[in-house]
Amino acid sequence: MVMTDPVADFLTRVRNGNMVMHETV
């Protein structure tokens, strides 16, 4: 995983957010 990549970080964040949202809902 490349932490220096803003795109990768953004995608990972979005994925995590989606997963958390789905779990919460």
Q: Can you walk me through this structure?
A:
This protein is an all-alpha fold. It has one helix and no strands. It has one helix at residues 6-24. It starts with 5 loop residues before the first helix and ends with a helix.
Fill in the keyword field for this structure.
rod-shaped; about 75% helix; about 25 residues; mainly alpha
Main sheet summary: none
Instruction: Indicate the structural class.
Output: mainly alpha
Record field, number of beta strands: 0
Q: Calculate the terminal CA-CA distance, rounded to whole Å.
A: 28 Å
Strand content: under 5%
What is the rounded Rg? Answer: 10 Å
How many helices does DSSP assign?
1
Helix and strand sequence: H
What low-confidence regions span 5 or more consecutive residues with pLDDT below 50?
Answer: none
Please give the share of residues in helix.
over 70%
Shape: rod-shaped
User: For the residues shown, what is the average pLDDT?
Assistant: 75
Write a brief caption for the model.
With 25 residues, the protein is mainly α. It has one helix spanning 6-24. The chain contains one helix and no strands.
Q: How is this fold's topology laid out?
A:
Blueprint lengths: L5 H19 L1
